[in-house]
């Protein structure tokens, strides 16, 4: 980044709180500056002000703020900005209208139909970005050559399409003019199948521009990838954000003479590349700020450390960004920010809710850090503005931050130093809560000092930040301990040693400009131009020429675009990618062939097939050799090497390092004398033993005891992390270690899940993530499980405890058990549970158990998929395992399990499993996941001892018990205060009239309750019977919702509760009763009854709307959203899954491309939610037109009994299943049936609405909708997306 021409190069990171300026000045020296991003009393724009100050300081002359700056001495400006992210978070973008294919008016509102928070009854969801919707009369479908079909046209993917209805531009013109008259100037155009046939969108766009719309975003241009929902969100984000960005850019330009005409101005995009100012768009801008930091450490730490993989750790005020670099940027191509799913290349930056401003709580015996944040205003308690206690306050109390090293910008007048006294006072209030619990709680223990409490919170925060790092690395088959930790951001230096030590890393690298690394990354970044287009070719020798031609054309586009920006051809490089997947799967990988040169059996651009197989094997642990590979997209990334490099070299050491002062820092065991060094005074070769503090103007680095820091040749700090001094942890309850063990136990279940997902082969487990993994104590009691699939909650515990009772002493090392029987704790037969007892030297009985439950796509029975709508006995639903040894003496019993899976074929009308290969592969994957759990718990025992680990298994269960007891006491006390009895009851019915009755008796003194289902109807002749485990899962789900905050979901939740379920009832049927409908339907009614008894909210749709379609060569299954119930203070959410399911729905374009159906309508069923002071959510209308003969099966409820309203609220509308035959005849199918359908028939599904809450005529003001608050940080990244996908089952 030298300046031979004697001009300045600026790199500026405009963050939410601070703006960092990095300037290379004439002569090569560097100036850095940090200033507030918003300071309207002193300047209009922070980046402009930063440039002005540096020009003023370097030039020695006054530059007035009210005059445009002279640009003659400025060569380039590079900027990363949070303008787009902030506009998205705060919903302050442009007014936008959505133009969408008729029938899909509410498609982006419904989205995937999954809710964000499983346990929040208000179902808070971010609102859509558009203000109005216009439905466009047009339709394009994939060509299948049916009789009467029109002439096919060829899409850009090579697919043949049929234009069923051309665009009605005449009818659209008047509607667009109406939008203009209402002040809307920006449009998002999203039409079905426009990724391959863009002509209709282009016609609409041309008309809109002719009429005078200032911005038109076509989804086919914003991101031409299949799947209309994320493509539509991307187009909306582009239309919403790009005008905002353009306004910011225009305002920035006005601060300079000539509006920066002769200055190269580049903006950082989400993918880590720079783009010219004029082509910087909204959908590519949301990670503009954080991307600079990733580029920064990739260009510095990775190079300096000899190519060892690096974990980026950027800890700020409200959140922490975690990323990985190992020689190439790791991108994701679909990710959510602030509730908006974007289809665009983005660096995989994982943002978690743990920063310096994260708030500290003590809840039911547990230390909790975040996710709530103090923000910049009022900020932590030490900011002197009445803020809450935070991680920053804990570090200040421990002496790890020095007030003297901070400017005096705090307090109401922004002229005071940090206040350690305010931190101590705020933390003392929490310490009082902690010590009250230790004195009066279930396990009295010695009191904790203020410093011990502060240290506890710091340790819990560190463990919370380790979890996403473990997930990010292990998800892709990497070992976190093999990485270097690159630490940057204002708060990271205080935690880096502890984080690295916890993850087994031995090196921390902190760049000398770590406080401004994002700005430095901008200075070192390259200019990038990308070209991408969709494809649907098979990856075979016959298509290699076509693929090469398409890649060459895209490469030419990239090179031309970069040459137009002034890059000579030698400075331009290109990299080609193919987006590949195995046919019949959804797991596509964007692969480059740069490490796989072309062969005689590959495209000229490289051996993409070998690259795909290698990466698939690394990430998933297997390949599918005989499965064809499909190309979904072709992409080329062109890079213009900027040639900008750092030239300032730090000084060498001149004698020993000078100690600026001595201070007292608190570590495990007490205070220690800690020297303080100033980073600016350190030189190459200086070595500093921990403990010590290294301070510069932007950050404080803590070198912990046992670690050593040295200054590198480039002036950076490299810390060698020593082993932690052994500490003694006893079996007695310690709330700090309770919180840490809570994270560790959950991390074990999460890592088991990652292994299962990586090694399984079926779509259900690998892609739909329909599985749970869990850890159990020696009594079979649940300790932790992940993910939180509602219908699995607590159910596996029943399975494990049944095996302990059934087998007793017949459990031996090397045994692994398989079970799915409802009377043994099973939910329904396709959910196969694999249990491994774990033995320990010197112990005769298992010391703990691990288990994994996965949904197998088929295990036999009377229908494919093993979920028949009309089964009457358990045998008709597939293979049954009561207590089966899958592995005996370490040997996998393949022959025996194969025989059992084929056994249903011996029953008349039934088949054995239809996919034995996938069953066996997935069972092996479940065994492997259990082995991972055993290894991880073994490591925990090795660290702490068996007695301590088992004790904390009990303590974490007791903690969940305490939270539920507190909730029950609070509920009982509230009723008592209003003169109401401590007994509540509710009753509801299945559509066949079977009652579900519940009476709950609260014991106020004990904080306990009896849940008595006596009076519930008998077992039914059909499959709505729900095994006992289902009722317990529903109960745990409801208890967690009623507690209203995160608690460990384990056996302890049910400890304060006695559950009475009459034997032989629909909730505890005989062993041979059919149960498949109980799992998906009756479970919802149980939830309705429990929440109704507590008066928590009105009934939600109470159904999963199960729809199955199949014939000899295809099968498809979906569940469909409905309305959520309203409650005290919120309207019900419309078009969302509720309670015991959260399954995502297949995107309409994917559905139409893979199955012989056309989605005619998918929109809200307006008015179906119950009226009330708070109205119930609306259901949806979904219409499927069939293009082939098939068998349609529906398994639904709430077709007879309406979802109830509460406290005067009206019930939601019943659901309705209609079949419209091709000849126009309409038939009501009822709630449960199988019926043949033929080409031209249409299935019309009307799902139930949610009940209303409160009197509709109540004049009290209503809120604008259900709560829409977004978190103060945009949680994002592949780890977050994985968790969302797991919970969408």
TrEMBL record:
Region (Disordered): 1248-1276
Domain of life: Eukaryota
Domain Hydantoinase/oxoprolinase N-terminal: residue ranges: 10-211
GO biological processes: glutathione metabolic process
UniProt-recorded Gene Ontology molecular function terms: 5-oxoprolinase (ATP-hydrolyzing) activity
Domain named Acetophenone carboxylase-like C-terminal: residues: 546-710
GO annotation, cellular component aspect: cytosol
Domain Hydantoinase B/oxoprolinase residue range list: 734-1256
Pfam families in the record: Hydant_A_C, Hydant_A_N, Hydantoinase_A, Hydantoinase_B
InterPro entries: ACX-like_C, Hydant_A_N, Hydantoinase_A, Hydantoinase_B, Oxoprolinase-like
Every Hydantoinase A/oxoprolinase domain range: 231-530
Similarity comment: Belongs to the oxoprolinase family.
Name recorded for this polypeptide: 5-oxoprolinase
């Amino acid at each position: 980044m030298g300046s031979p021409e004697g001009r300045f190069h600026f790199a500026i990171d405009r963050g939410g709180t601070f703006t960092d300026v990095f300037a290379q000045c004439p002569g090569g020296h560097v100036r850095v500056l940090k200033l507030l991003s918003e300071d309207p009393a002193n300047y209009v724009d922070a980046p402009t002000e930063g440039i002005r100050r540096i020009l003023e300081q370097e030039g020695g002359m006054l530059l007035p703020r009210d005059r445009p700056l002279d640009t003659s001495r400025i060569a380039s400006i590079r900027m990363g900005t949070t303008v787009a992210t902030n506009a998205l978070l705060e919903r302050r973008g442009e007014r936008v209208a959505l133009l969408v294919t008729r029938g899909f008016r509410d498609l982006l509102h419904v989205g995937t139909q999954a809710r964000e928070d499983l346990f929040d009854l208000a179902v808070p969801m971010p609102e859509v970005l558009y203000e109005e919707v216009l439905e466009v009369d047009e339709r394009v479908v994939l060509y299948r050559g049916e009789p009467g079909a029109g002439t096919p046209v060829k899409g850009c993917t090579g697919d043949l399409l049929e234009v069923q209805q051309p665009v009605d531009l005449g009818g659209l013109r008047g509607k667009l003019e109406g939008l203009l008259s209402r002040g809307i100037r920006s449009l998002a155009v999203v039409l079905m199948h426009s990724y391959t046939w863009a002509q209709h969108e282009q016609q609409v766009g041309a008309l809109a521009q002719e009429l005078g719309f200032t911005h038109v975003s076509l989804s086919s241009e914003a991101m031409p990838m299949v799947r209309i929902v994320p493509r539509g969100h991307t187009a909306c984000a582009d239309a919403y954000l790009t005008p905002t960005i353009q306004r910011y850019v225009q305002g920035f330009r006005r601060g300079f003479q000539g509006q920066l005409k002769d200055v190269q101005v580049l903006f950082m995009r989400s993918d880590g590349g720079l783009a010219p100012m004029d082509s910087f768009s909204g959908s590519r801008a949301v990670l503009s700020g954080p991307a600079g930091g990733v580029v920064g450490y990739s260009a510095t730490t990775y190079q300096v450390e000899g190519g060892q993989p690096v974990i980026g750790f950027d800890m700020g005020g409200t959140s922490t960004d975690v990323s990985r670099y190992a020689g190439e940027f790791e991108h994701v191509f679909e990710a959510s920010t602030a509730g908006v799913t974007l289809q665009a290349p983005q660096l995989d930056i994982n943002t978690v809710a743990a920063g310096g401003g994260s708030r500290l709580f003590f809840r039911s015996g547990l230390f909790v850090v975040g996710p709530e944040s103090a923000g910049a205003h009022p900020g932590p308690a030490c900011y002197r503005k009445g803020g809450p206690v935070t991680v920053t306050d804990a570090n200040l109390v421990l002496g790890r931050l020095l007030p003297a090293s901070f400017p005096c910008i705090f307090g109401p007048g922004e002229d005071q130093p940090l206040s350690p006294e305010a931190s101590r006072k705020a933390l003392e209030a929490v310490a009082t809560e902690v010590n009250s619990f230790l004195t009066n709680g279930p396990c009295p223990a010695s009191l904790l000092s203020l410093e011990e409490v502060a240290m506890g919170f710091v340790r819990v925060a560190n463990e919370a930040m380790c979890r996403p790092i473990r997930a990010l690395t292990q998800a892709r088959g990497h070992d976190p301990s093999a990485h270097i930790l690159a630490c940057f951001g204002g708060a990271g230096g205080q935690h880096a040693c502890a984080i690295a030590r916890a993850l087994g890393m031995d090196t921390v690298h902190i760049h000398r400009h770590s406080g401004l690394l994002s700005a430095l990354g901008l200075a070192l970044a390259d200019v990038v131009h990308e070209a991408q287009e969709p494809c649907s070719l098979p990856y075979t020798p016959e298509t290699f020429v076509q693929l090469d031609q398409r890649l060459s054309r895209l490469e030419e586009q990239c090179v031309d675009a970069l040459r137009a920006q002034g890059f000579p051809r030698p400075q331009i490089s290109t990299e080609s990618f193919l987006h590949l997947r195995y046919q019949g799967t959804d797991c596509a990988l964007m692969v480059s062939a740069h490490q796989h040169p072309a062969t005689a059996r590959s495209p000229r651009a490289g051996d993409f097939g070998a690259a795909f197989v290698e990466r698939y094997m690394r990430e998933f642990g297997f390949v599918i050799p005989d499965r064809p590979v499909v190309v979904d997209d072709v992409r080329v990334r062109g890079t213009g090497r900027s040639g900008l490099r750092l030239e300032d070299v730090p000084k060498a050491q001149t004698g020993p390092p000078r100690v600026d002062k001595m201070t007292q820092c608190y570590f495990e065991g007490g205070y220690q004398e800690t020297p303080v060094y100033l980073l600016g005074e350190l030189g190459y070769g200086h070595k500093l033993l921990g403990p010590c503090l290294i301070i510069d103007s932007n950050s404080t680095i803590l070198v912990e005891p046992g670690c050593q820091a040295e200054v590198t040749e480039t002036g950076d700090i490299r810390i060698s992390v020593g082993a932690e001094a052994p500490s003694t942890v006893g079996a007695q309850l310690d709330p700090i270690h309770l919180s840490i063990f809570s994270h560790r136990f959950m991390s074990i279940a999460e890592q088991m899940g990652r292994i299962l997902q990586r090694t399984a082969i079926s779509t259900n487990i690998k892609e739909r993530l329909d599985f749970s993994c869990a850890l159990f104590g020696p009594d079979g009691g649940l300790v932790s499980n992940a993910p939180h699939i509602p219908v699995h909650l607590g159910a596996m515990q029943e399975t494990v405890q049944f095996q302990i009772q059934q087998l007793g002493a017949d459990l031996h090392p090397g045994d692994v058990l398989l079970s799915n029987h409802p009377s043994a704790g099973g939910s329904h037969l396709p959910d196969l549970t694999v249990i491994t007892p774990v033995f320990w030297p010197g112990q005769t009985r298992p010391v703990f158990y691990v288990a994994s439950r996965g949904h197998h796509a088929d295990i036999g029975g009377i229908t494919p998929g093993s979920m028949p709508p009309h089964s009457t006995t358990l045998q008709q639903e597939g293979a049954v395992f009561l207590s089966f040894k899958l592995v005996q003496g370490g040997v996998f019993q393949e022959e025996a399990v194969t025989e059992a899976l084929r056994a249903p074929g011996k029953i008349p009308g039934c088949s054995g499993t239809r996919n034995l290969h996938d069953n066996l592969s997935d069972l092996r994957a479940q065994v492997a996941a259990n082995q991972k759990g055993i290894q991880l718990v073994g490591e925990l025992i090795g660290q702490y001892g068996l007695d301590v680990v088992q004790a904390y298994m009990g303590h974490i269960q007791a903690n969940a018990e305490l939270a539920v007891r507190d909730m029950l006491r609070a509920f009982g006390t509230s009723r008592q205060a209003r003169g109401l009895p401590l007994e509540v009851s509710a009753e509801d019915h299945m559509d066949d009239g079977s009652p579900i009755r519940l009476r709950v008796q609260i014991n106020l003194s004990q904080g306990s309750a009896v849940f008595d289902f006596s009076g519930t109807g008998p077992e039914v002749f059909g499959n709505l019977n729900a095994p006992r485990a289902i009722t317990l899962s529903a109960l745990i789900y409801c208890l967690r919702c009623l507690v209203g905050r995160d608690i460990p979901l384990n056996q302890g939740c049910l400890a304060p509760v006695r559950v009475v379920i009459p034997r032989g009832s629909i909730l505890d049927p005989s062993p041979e009763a059919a149960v498949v409908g109980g799992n998906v339907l009756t479970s919802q009614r149980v939830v309705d009854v429990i929440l109704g008894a507590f008066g928590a909210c009105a009934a939600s749709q109470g159904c999963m709307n199960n729809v199955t379609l199949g014939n000899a060569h295809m099968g498809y299954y979906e569940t469909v959203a409905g309305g959520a119930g309203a409650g005290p203070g919120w309207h019900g959410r419309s078009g969302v899954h509720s309670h015991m399911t959260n399954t995502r729905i297949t995107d309409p374009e994917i559905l139409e491309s893979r199955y012989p159906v056309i989605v005619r309508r998918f929109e809200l069923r307006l008015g179906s939610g119950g009226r009330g002071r708070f109205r119930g959510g609306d259901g949806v209308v979904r219409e499927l037109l069939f293009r082939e003969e098939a068998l349609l099966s529906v398994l639904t409820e709430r077709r007879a009994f309406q979802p109830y309203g509460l406290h005067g609220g009206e019930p939601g509308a019943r659901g309705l299943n209609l079949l419209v035959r091709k000849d126009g005849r309409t038939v009501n199918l009822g709630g449960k049936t199988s019926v043949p359908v033929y080409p031209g028939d249409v299935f019309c599904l009307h799902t139930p609405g949610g009940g209303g809450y409160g009197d509709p005529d109540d004049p009290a003001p209503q809120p604008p909708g259900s709560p829409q608050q977004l978190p103060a940080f945009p949680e994002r990244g592949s780890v977050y997306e994985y968790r969302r996908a797991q919970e969408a089952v």
